[in-house]
């Protein structure tokens, strides 16, 4: 099977959508951590604990890792129309932001927070998988990290493009505009609410 055909297999994209939807559900209905404070979302998904609380994960913002806090909140009713990208891609360092055993190894990228908000504000995001396109792989411009998200096939999560890391929304969107990565919108089940702390 060619790389292009593998990228377009509906079953693979369906499995990818289910995988992020599972992550999103975990964030939206996270079990309670002990009274020790806010915990990493990945660490409190299993084993199950009683109650529900918010959690945090690290995200890349213009090449710097920041903490994003997810409240114990989900969307009821219609999906909001103004959503920014919450990009899920291959780990950009040896320490992934999302990791097994509760999820597959991955990192997150979001746009920078506005300076007028002093680096802390709530925003609504739409989840996207950032995958190397057939063109990106064939040209050698996009280096994939073939990763299983629970389906029968692995997905080519983007690691670098033109030898550069993808730690900013601008880098990801530029690579997408050039056709080197594909941004796979994971639909209404992958809508998140998050707050970035600090500048």
- What is the ordering of alpha helices and beta strands? HHHEEEEEHEEEHEE
Taken together, the total number of domains comes to 1
User: What is the structural class?
Assistant: alpha+beta
- What shape does the CA trace take? globular
- Biggest sheet: strands, sense, closure? 7 strands, mixed
How many strands appear in the DSSP assignment?
A: 10
Structure report:
The chain has 199 residues and is an alpha+beta fold. The protein has one domain (3-22, 56-197). Helices cover 22% and strands 32% of the residues. It contains 5 helices and 10 strands. It has helices at residues 3-8, 10-28, 41-44, 134-139, 169-177, and strands at residues 55-61, 64-70, 84-89, 107-109, 121-132, 142-148, 154-161, 164-165, 181-185, 191-197. Strands 1, 2, 3, 4, 5, 9 and 10 form a 7-stranded mixed beta sheet that branches. A hairpin with a 5-residue loop joins β6 (142-148) and β7 (154-161). It is globular, with a radius of gyration of 16 Å. The N and C termini lie far apart (46 Å).
Summarize this structure briefly.
By secondary structure, the chain is α+β, with helices and mostly antiparallel strands.
Relevant terms:
single chain; alpha+beta; 3-stranded antiparallel sheet; 10 strands; 22% helix; 32% strand
SSE layout:
Layout: H1 3-8, H2 10-28, H3 41-44, E1 55-61, E2 64-70, E3 84-89, E4 107-109, E5 121-132, H4 134-139, E6 142-148, E7 154-161, E8 164-165, H5 169-177, E9 181-185, E10 191-197
Parallel strand pairs: 3-5
Antiparallel strand pairs: 1-2, 2-10, 3-4, 5-9, 5-10, 6-7, 7-8
């Amino acid at each position: 099977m060619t790389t292009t055909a593998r990228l377009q297999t509906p079953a693979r994209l369906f499995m990818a959508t289910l995988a992020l939807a599972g992550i999103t559900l975990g964030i939206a209905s996270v079990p309670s951590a002990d009274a020790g404070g806010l915990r990493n979302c990945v660490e409190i998904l299993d084993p199950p604990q009683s109650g529900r609380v918010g959690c945090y994960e690290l995200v890349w913002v213009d090449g710097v890792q920041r903490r994003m806090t997810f409240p114990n909140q989900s969307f009821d009713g219609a999906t909001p129309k103004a959503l920014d990208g919450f990009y899920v891609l291959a780990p950009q360092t040896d320490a992934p932001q999302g990791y097994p055993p509760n999820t597959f190894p991955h990192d997150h990228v979001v746009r920078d927070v506005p300076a007028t908000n002093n680096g802390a504000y709530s925003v609504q995001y739409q989840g996207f998988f950032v995958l190397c396109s057939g063109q990106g792989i064939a040209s050698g411009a996009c280096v994939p990290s073939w990763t299983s998200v629970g389906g029968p096939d692995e997905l080519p999560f983007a690691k670098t493009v033109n030898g550069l890391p993808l730690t900013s929304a601008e880098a990801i969107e530029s690579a997408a505009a050039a056709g080197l990565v594909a941004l796979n919108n994971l639909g209404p089940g992958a809508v998140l609410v998050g707050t970035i702390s600090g500048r």
